[in-house]
């Protein structure tokens, strides 16, 4: 990763973190520590920013971040079944990344698209009106 | 400008820009405040300090509300009291409130305010933010369950210490103080200055050492001075059952303004070490090195007999004494008096020779006085340009580094000049990295630029400087291009430095061992003094020359004449009138007329068989002096060696007789800090068993020699100093009870001197010195391709006799190490932590190597503290011809893999 552009720039912590997460899908702690050393950033400061924003995670994430909604609307409309089938077929567990490094499951409260319930998001894309079958076919089509 | 403020209907005067809280505190009007800390920038987070200001719609936080016009303030309206009570109640709802078992009880602001506002139980009983303890080992407990998020620790760590080891993390209700990735403080670059503990209003941050030792009301509290470095921080010592429980910083009125460093805060465990010497010890047989306990009577008799014998056989000059920069002024005074009056020799010196002799030698010639010309406070508040050259101040005088940091945040320009990229370089406006030992060249180049670009201060030169023409002519032939070649610094960069230095309103140059510990040490200081004289950057608050003194009382030991050529107060030994004055006052039959020998000369004299008996008070030359094997052989040749110390040092092992002395927590007296401030030292605990304060030992010894040294207390000695030393004349014991005083202080009405040389130099006019550049004594070559440079580290002190006996400090830096540039390590296929052999023409040591980016390539940095891998086995003992200081900063070595 090129970090020279961050040298001698004040208040760039947020940008830097977004940059890393954008590339890696999560923020690897060892990488961040290395960058801190190179740029002479106190680790406490970057950690302060990192923990302040909920968008960042230091948990290793798979290639696909699956946000599966379990808000009221989705719950009622069968989000559980979708979850169960993904658990069984792909070994997804909430908050964990699959062993092959492809999927990370994050259960969330509401994705703000209840009219499509049940809903999931894979990276930046929404998928609505899910059934277990539909979910499986979406997964199959992922590279 | 002052304006009127009405607080609770009473009129007060305020300065424009003062906050309401400042005015209130000044007049003892109580306003509760949790996140306010007078030495830090206002923050306004806890809101407890709210007051009503007429005309403002809502209550304002008095800690951040600056007064700019006449206002009316109400601090205790029913509404304000209700709101404060609410705020406190909220804080307590998220607090364990277990005051009955809390270490901080009695000293906790939250507890105090809860009491004052009558809160028995928090009004809101809800969920509490569960935060667990975090790692602050080896010194700090971080019990964040008690944290009230005032943010003071974060601010002090950033604004003062500059470590940035902690910050706010998470958000909302879950917010807490974090270190990077929740790691330990140690792994987060914490300096363990303990200043976060000092400011924490509650029990969230505490000293590990004080855990379960009792609470504030059980301690006896004594104010005294830190025993370590030349800053001379004021400390408050909490004592229970004759043991020190903890040490806090003294706030107002002290040099340190409420801050400390790791040694001052945590480094006191050595006082109670079982290794302390407790009885006089006599060597039983020379070879085996076994000692047996004897009584004080026997010990003193032995000294009288042996010293008299030696004197009879070889003459008085066969005896010599090394005084101590750790002992009080009074003790050093007695020590030199003992040698001059009773033994009748001037062979007295101490380790100042090994640090600032060049500063003293050079400045006494050019200005007439060798001390720091300004106060530390002036650096913090007045200097606009600070040139830091050859001083790794954040390691060696941390509290001074806090002051520089504050100056920089106030807008002062910091210029760091050092071959090592030291911590302070991070906040510098300009950092330049000249080649080792090229200082004279660099400084001359700056002078040349100042002349060439007409940056001189004409008026100042006309009125206060002599031999300007001569200097200017001499400078004609100086070539900036050659300077560029030798220093490795571009002319352009030098021009920038010269310009900032010369044109700032008040510029100060701060230096330490990086300037003095060279064979050109004196020349280096001459070159610095030239800069100040050419630009008139001296003799005003914030403008001057500041040699930072290392040990707690090295300034005092010099002042007291623990020097071979000066009586106390820099009165020349070779001046017959002065000799007459001391002779009469001391009632001495005669006094030696010739200057005595310096430290390094004393050891070569022992080698040559001229000196036979040596008395060492609180020094450890076997680690601190250059070329140790040389010193070791010398010491073995002595007929009689007395060592007076608190521990069995490496040197003491060679002694024929060892005398146990009291440490500075166990006696009274005065220390003089780096800025000439004389401060009172007070007894906190009793010395172990038969150990005695050094002054008592010397007094008893003098009596044994048949001299009537009738000092009833230490203060009788202080009074004698007042009479004999003009610069100390007004610094009487009575005055020291109330305030510290900076010399010169000519009489009891004189309020001391913060800035030296206002309007006039003691030498009359300032003298410019033409100094030619000379190469260091030993430069790298094919056989020895690396430069070895020695120095100090934050968590160690001198030869570690004290710091090695503080467990936490030992954990942090107990093992000897050296630093090398990461690129060199790569080239040599060495790993961080591998062992290497460092070899010079004098000897070799094995040592662990650490990777560093601050040390330049082809260089090894070794802290001199460690006896097991003593850097001074490698250094050479060639001296600066004037000041007789050895060149610790440069010698050539080679590195071998192990
Ligand atoms: S001890 Fe000093 S450096 Fe360490 S966290 Fe506290 S304030 Fe910061
Ligand atoms: S640890 Fe102490 S100083 Fe730091 S924020 Fe918490 S209460 Fe304040
Ligand atoms: S800066 Fe010096 S005097 Fe102050 S606490 Fe540290 S060692 Fe002691
Ligand atoms: S509840 Fe699932 S999108 Fe709102
Ligand atoms: S003391 Fe003023 S807001 Fe905290």
Architecture blueprint of SSEs:
The complex is a heterodimer of chains A (143) and B (898).
Chain A: H1 13-24, H2 29-39, H3 43-52, E1 64-69, H4 72-76, H5 79-90, E2 103-108, E3 120-122, E4 125-127, H6 132-141
Parallel strand pairs in A: 1-2
Antiparallel strand pairs in A: 1-3, 3-4
Helix pairs in contact in A: 5-6
Chain B: E1 2-7, E2 10-15, H1 20-26, E3 50-53, E4 60-61, E5 71-74, H2 78-93, H3 109-116, E6 140-142, H4 152-161, E7 166-169, E8 176-179, H5 195-199, E9 205-207, E10 220-225, E11 234-240, E12 243-249, H6 262-266, E13 281-285, E14 290-293, H7 296-314, E15 319-322, H8 329-343, E16 348-349, H9 357-366, H10 376-381, E17 385-389, H11 393-396, H12 398-410, E18 413-417, E19 430-432, H13 439-452, H14 458-464, E20 465-466, H15 468-475, H16 480-487, H17 491-503, E21 507-511, H18 513-516, H19 521-535, E22 544-547, H20 554-559, E23 566-567, E24 571-572, H21 576-586, H22 599-607, E25 613-617, H23 621-624, H24 628-637, E26 640-645, E27 657-660, E28 669-672, E29 677-681, H25 694-704, H26 714-724, H27 733-736, E30 741-742, E31 766-767, E32 786-791, H28 807-813, E33 817-821, H29 822-827, E34 835-839, E35 844-852, E36 859-863, E37 891-897
Parallel strand pairs in B: 1-5, 15-16, 15-25, 17-18, 17-21, 18-19, 20-31, 21-22, 25-26, 26-27, 32-36, 33-35
Antiparallel strand pairs in B: 1-2, 3-4, 3-5, 6-9, 7-8, 10-11, 11-12, 13-14, 13-27, 23-24, 28-29, 29-30, 32-37, 33-36, 34-35, 34-37
The complex binds iron/sulfur cluster (3 copies) and FE2/S2 (inorganic) cluster (2 copies).
One iron/sulfur cluster binds at residues 147-153, 177, 199-202, 204-205 of chain B.
């Amino acid at each position: 990763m090129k970090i020279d552009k961050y040298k001698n720039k004040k208040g760039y912590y947020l940008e830097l973190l977004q940059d890393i997460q954008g590339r890696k899908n999560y923020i690897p702690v060892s990488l961040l520590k290395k960058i801190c050393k190179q740029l002479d950033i106190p680790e406490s400061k970057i950690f302060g920013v990192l923990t302040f924003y909920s968008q960042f995670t230091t948990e290793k994430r798979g290639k696909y971040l699956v946000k599966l909604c379990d808000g009221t609307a989705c719950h009622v409309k069968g989000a559980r079944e979708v979850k169960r089938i993904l658990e069984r077929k792909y070994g997804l567990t909430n908050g964990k990344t699959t062993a092959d490094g492809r999927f990370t499951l994050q259960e969330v409260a509401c994705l703000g698209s209840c009219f499509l319930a049940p809903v999931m998001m894979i990276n930046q894309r929404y998928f609505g009106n899910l059934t277990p079958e539909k979910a499986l076919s979406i997964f199959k089509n992922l590279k | 400008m002052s304006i009127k403020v009405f607080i609770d209907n009473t009129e007060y005067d305020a300065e424009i820009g003062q906050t309401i809280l400042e005015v209130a505190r000044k007049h003892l009007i109580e306003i509760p405040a949790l996140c306010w800390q007078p030495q830090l920038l206002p923050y306004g987070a806890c809101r407890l300090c709210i007051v009503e200001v007429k005309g403002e719609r809502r209550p304002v936080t008095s800690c951040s509300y600056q007064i700019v016009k006449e206002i009316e303030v109400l601090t205790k309206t029913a509404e304000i009291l209700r709101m404060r009570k609410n705020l406190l109640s909220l804080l307590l709802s998220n607090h364990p409130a277990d005051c009955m078992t809390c270490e901080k009880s009695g000293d906790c602001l939250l507890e105090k305010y809860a009491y004052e506002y009558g809160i028995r139980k928090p009004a809101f009983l809800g969920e509490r933010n569960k935060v667990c303890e975090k790692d602050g080992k080896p010194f700090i407990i971080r019990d964040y369950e008690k944290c009230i998020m005032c943010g003071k620790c974060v601010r002090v760590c950033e604004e003062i210490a500059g470590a940035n080891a902690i910050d706010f993390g998470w958000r909302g209700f879950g917010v807490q103080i974090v270190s990077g990735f929740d790691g330990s403080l140690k792994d987060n670059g914490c300096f363990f200055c303990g200043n976060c503990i000092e400011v924490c209003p509650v029990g969230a941050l505490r000293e590990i050492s004080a855990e379960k030792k009792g609470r504030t009301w059980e301690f006896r509290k004594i104010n005294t001075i830190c025993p370590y470095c030349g800053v001379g921080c004021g400390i408050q010592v909490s004592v229970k059952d004759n043991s020190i429980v903890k040490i806090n910083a003294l706030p107002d009125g002290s040099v340190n303004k409420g801050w400390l460093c790791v040694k001052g805060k945590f480094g006191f465990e050595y006082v109670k070490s079982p290794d302390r010497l407790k009885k006089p010890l006599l060597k039983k047989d020379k070879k085996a090195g076994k000692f047996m306990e004897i009584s004080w009577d026997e010990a003193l008799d032995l000294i009288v007999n042996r010293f008299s014998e030696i004197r009879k056989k070889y003459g008085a000059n066969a005896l010599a004494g090394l005084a101590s920069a750790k002992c009080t002024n009074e003790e050093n005074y007695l020590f030199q008096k003992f040698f001059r009056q009773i033994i009748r020799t001037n062979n007295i010196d101490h380790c100042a020779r090994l640090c600032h002799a060049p500063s003293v030698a050079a400045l006494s010639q050019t200005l007439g006085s060798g001390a720091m010309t300004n106060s530390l406070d002036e650096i913090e508040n007045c200097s606009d340009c600070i040139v830091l050259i050859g001083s790794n101040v954040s390691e060696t005088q941390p509290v001074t580094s806090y002051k520089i940091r504050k100056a920089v945040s106030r807008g002062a320009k910091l210029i760091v000049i050092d071959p090592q990229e030291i911590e302070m370089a991070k906040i510098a406006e300009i950092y330049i990295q000249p080649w080792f030992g090229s200082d004279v060249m660099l400084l001359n180049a700056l002078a040349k630029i100042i002349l060439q670009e007409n940056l001189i201060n004409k008026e100042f030169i006309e009125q206060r400087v002599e031999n300007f023409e001569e200097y200017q002519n001499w400078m004609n032939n100086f070539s900036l291009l050659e300077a560029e070649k030798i220093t490795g610094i571009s002319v352009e960069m030098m021009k920038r430095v010269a310009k900032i230095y010369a044109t700032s309103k008040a510029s100060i140059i701060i230096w330490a061992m990086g300037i003095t510990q060279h064979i050109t040490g004196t020349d280096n200081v001459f070159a610095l003094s030239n800069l100040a004289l050419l630009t008139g950057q001296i003799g005003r608050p914030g403008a001057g020359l500041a040699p930072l003194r290392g040990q707690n009382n090295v300034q005092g030991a010099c002042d007291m004449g623990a020097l071979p050529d000066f009586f106390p107060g820099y009165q020349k030994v070779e001046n017959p009138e002065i000799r007459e004055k001391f002779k009469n006052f001391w009632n001495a039959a005669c006094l030696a007329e010739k200057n005595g020998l310096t430290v390094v000369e004393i050891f070569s004299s022992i080698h040559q068989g001229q000196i036979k008996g040596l008395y060492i008070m609180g020094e450890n030359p076997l680690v601190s002096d250059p070329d140790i094997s040389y010193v070791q052989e010398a010491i073995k040749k002595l007929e009689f060696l007395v060592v007076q110390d608190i521990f069995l040092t490496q040197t003491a092992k060679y002694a024929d007789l060892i005398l146990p002395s009291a440490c500075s927590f166990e006696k009274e007296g005065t220390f003089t800090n780096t800025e000439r401030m004389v401060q009172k030292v007070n007894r906190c605990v009793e010395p172990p068993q038969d150990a005695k304060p050094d002054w008592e030992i010397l007094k008893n010894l003098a009596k044994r020699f048949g001299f009537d040294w009738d000092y009833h207390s230490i203060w009788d000695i202080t009074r004698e100093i007042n009479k004999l030393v003009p610069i100390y004349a007004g610094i009487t014991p009575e005055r020291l009870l109330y305030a510290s005083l900076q010399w010169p202080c000519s009489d009891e009405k004189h309020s001391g001197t913060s800035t030296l040389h206002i309007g006039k130099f003691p030498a009359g006019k300032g003298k410019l010195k033409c100094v030619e550049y000379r190469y260091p004594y030993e430069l790298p070559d094919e056989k020895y391709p690396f430069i070895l440079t020695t120095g100090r580290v934050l968590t160690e002190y001198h030869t570690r006799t004290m710091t090695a006996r503080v467990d936490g400090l030992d954990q942090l830096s107990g093992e000897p190490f050296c630093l090398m540039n990461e690129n060199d390590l790569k080239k040599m296929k060495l790993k961080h932590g591998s062992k290497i052999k460092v070899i010079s023409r004098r000897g070799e040591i094995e040592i662990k190597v650490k990777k560093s980016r601050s040390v330049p390539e082809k260089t090894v940095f070794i802290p001199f503290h460690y006896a097991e891998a003593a850097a001074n086995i490698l250094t050479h003992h060639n001296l600066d011809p004037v000041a007789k200081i050895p060149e610790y900063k440069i010698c050539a070595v080679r590195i071998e893999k192990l």
